[in-house]
Amino acid sequence: MDFQFIKDSISSSPAFVLDAEEIINSLKVLNILRHQCGCKILYSIKSLPLSSVLDIAKPLVDGFSVSSLFEARLADEILAGQGGIHLTTPGLRPDEWDEMAPLLTHISFNSLTQYQRFAFKSRARASIGLRVNPKLSWVNDDRFDPCRQYSKLGVSIDELWQSSCLDQIKGLHIHNIFAATDFTPLIKTIDKLRGYFGKSLAQLDWLNLGGGYLFNVINDHSPFIDLVKKLKDDFKLEVYIEPGKAVVGNAGYLVSTVIDEFTSDGKRVAILDTSVNHNPEVFEYQRRPELHEQDSNGRYSAILAGCTCLAGDVFGEYRFTEPLQAGDRLVFKNVGAYSLIKANRFNGYNLPAIHVYKSAQIKKIRHYDYYDYRRQWVLDE
Questions:
Q1: Do 307 and 286 share a structural domain?
Q2: How the protein assembles, per its UniProt entry (predicted)?
Q3: In terms of C-beta distances under 8 Å and separation of at least 24 residues, what long-range contacts does 4-9 make, across chains too?
Q4: pLDDT per residue as tens digits for the range 148-165
Q5: Contact 315, 304 (CB under 8 A)
Q6: What's the chain's average pLDDT?
């Protein structure tokens, strides 16, 4: 990525830039895995449902994973029958079921009550499964831990083991990790699944290993390849994974401009024309996003703050080789996942324009204006 070219090419900020080539590179890593072990790849739409991403991913994946009616409709529109649509969600609505069910190829019901309510009156052509909570936590932050105490995500492995449901379903879905950079959690989770269900797993058609693994930053894929091959050999299972952040996380950039700078209690503060509301996980999880211009040995420091009146609209303190001035362009890196999809117009500040970078060219594909904001809030009679 040529950052100077990007900053020079953006006519106005804030701007979200999607690196199409980075997405393709990440998908190629996954495609190699697919050929090495026979797993199937689903892109998890929730990380970034932009149609440009879905169009890039479509020929390199086996389908999309979705969590709602709108995601299912979008997946169906893009795929046009050329891939699977897998659903799992705790929020399955009775009033949406008849519209959603025919769109799906696979459903992992989130609870036994959900399964009992919907599976037997299904209009679906889908292969029916259950999401299982393996009761193994690998995430220190409860906000990210699907296996936290009193979890809403999946059927307890003990409850499933005591039921007769395994004889009635076609697959299982597991997902108990976030942003993992090795496969230890997956290996231990599968060991526990084998310990509980043993040869009964051969009754199933498929096993969805979920997402949460950053395949593009894991150097040694051999443990994953061996695990998938053994599952296929021992139980004749179709094995799925559904990466999201691993596809788009490193492919998104947020370009911003310094619009004011001053001293507050002895520290320099730079106000940007973007805000944490354009990358809400910064505020939600108190993250300090990566900045291209950061120099850990730089002589000058500044607190980068957003332009809204929220006191906590702060990205963090960074160091620079030169003091920041109004008009300087800055680029936050690795914000492709769970940023644009969560972005909002708090205080009436506009959403970032969306650009795609490919073949050393940048193209604006979406711009928002006052009438988009007005449409959301003004009730014309």
A1: yes
A2: Homodimer.
A3: 5/360, 5/362, 6/253, 6/255, 6/331, 6/357, 6/362, 7/255, 7/329, 7/331, 9/362
A4: 999 999 999 999 999 988
A5: yes
A6: 95
Alpha carbon distances (Å) from 45 to 64, 76, 153: 6, 12, 18
Task: Give the H/E segment covering residue 361.
Answer: strand 361-366
- Confidence bin at 99 (pLDDT 50/70/90): very high
Asked whether the predicted pLDDT for residue 71 surpasses 80, the reply is yes
Distance CA 73, CA 59 (A): 19
Amino acid 123: pLDDT: 58
Indicate whether 350 and 324 sit together in one domain: yes
Q: With respect to residue 30, please indicate whether it lies within any of the assigned structural domains.
A: no
Report residue 185: phi and psi, to 5°: -60, -40
The reply to whether 32 falls in a domain is no
CB 90, CB 152: distance < 8 Å: yes
Map tokens 């809400």 to a residue: 280
Q: Do residue 82 and residue 191 come from a single domain?
A: yes
The arithmetic mean of pLDDT across residues 269-298, rounded, is: 95
Number of C-beta neighbours around residue 54 at 10 A: 19
Residue 229 has pLDDT above 80, yes or no: yes
Widest distance between CA atoms in the chain: 67
Q: Could you say which of 243, 274, 301 is where a domain stops?
A: 243
Domain count, the chain: 2
What is the residue whose two structure tokens read 């904001």? 373
DSSP 198: G
Together in a domain, 142 and 253 = no
pTM above 0.90, yes or no: yes
192 and 272 in a common domain: no
Picking from 316, 309, 307, 311, the residue whose alpha carbon sits closest to that of residue 260 is: 307
Contacts of 79 (CB under 8 A, 6+ apart): 58, 63, 64, 85
Q: How confident is the model at residue 122 (pLDDT cuts 50, 70, 90)?
A: low
Domain identity same for 48 and 73: yes
- Within a domain: 126: yes
Residue 23 lies in a domain: no
Average pLDDT over residues 307-314: 96
Structure token digits, residue 102: 């025919």
Q: Which residue has the tokens 């505020």?
A: 283
Interhelix angle for 20-37 vs 222-235, to 10°? 50
Q: Coil, helix or strand for 275?
A: coil
pLDDT tens digits along 128-144: 999 999 999 998 889 88
81 CB-contact burial (10 Å; exposed 0-12 / middle 13-18 / buried 19+): exposed
